[in-house]
Design brief:
The protein is mostly helical. It has helices at 3-24, 29-32, 36-55, 58-63, 69-81, 88-113. The chain starts with a helix and ends with a helix.
Length: 114
C-alpha cells in the first residue's frame, strides 16, 4: 500500500467522523431511540471510520501512534458482527466523546502528510 492510499484512508476516516459528529449536533441522546434513520446513519458512519482504519497500512499506523487504531477497528467489528444488538448508548458516547479527539488526530496526521 502506498502512502497515498494511507492518506486516502485517513481522509475517509476524517470525513465520516466529522459527518457523525455533525449528525448529532444539537440533538439529545434520548432522541436517538426514536429515530431509526439516524441510528442506521450513525452506525454506518462509525463502521466506515473503522473499516478505513483497518485499511491503513501497518507503516501508516506506526507513523501516527496517537490515533487509536485498534479501538476504531474494534468498534467497526462490534457494529458489523453485533448488528442485532447495537448499544445506542455506546454508539452515542463514541461519537460524542471519542470522535472529536480522533478528528483532531486525523487533521494533524493529514496536515503532516501533505
Amino acid at each position: 500500500m502506498t502512502r497515498h492510499d494511507d492518506e486516502v484512508r485517513l481522509r475517509h476516516m476524517l470525513d465520516h467522523a466529522l459527518e457523525a459528529v455533525e449528525a448529532i449536533r444539537g440533538r439529545q441522546r434520548e432522541g436517538l431511540k426514536h429515530d431509526r434513520i439516524l441510528q442506521l446513519a450513525l452506525v454506518r458512519l462509525v463502521e466506515i471510520v473503522g473499516e478505513a482504519a483497518a485499511r491503513v497500512s501497518a507503516q501508516g499506523q506506526q507513523r501516527y501512534p496517537a490515533i487509536p487504531w485498534q479501538q476504531a477497528i474494534g468498534m467497526r467489528n462490534r457494529l458489523i458482527h453485533g448488528y442485532d444488538k447495537v448499544d445506542l448508548d455506546v454508539l452515542w458516547d463514541t461519537i460524542q466523546d471519542d470522535l472529536p479527539a480522533l478528528i483532531v488526530g486525523l487533521r494533524e496526521a493529514l496536515g503532516r502528510s501533505a
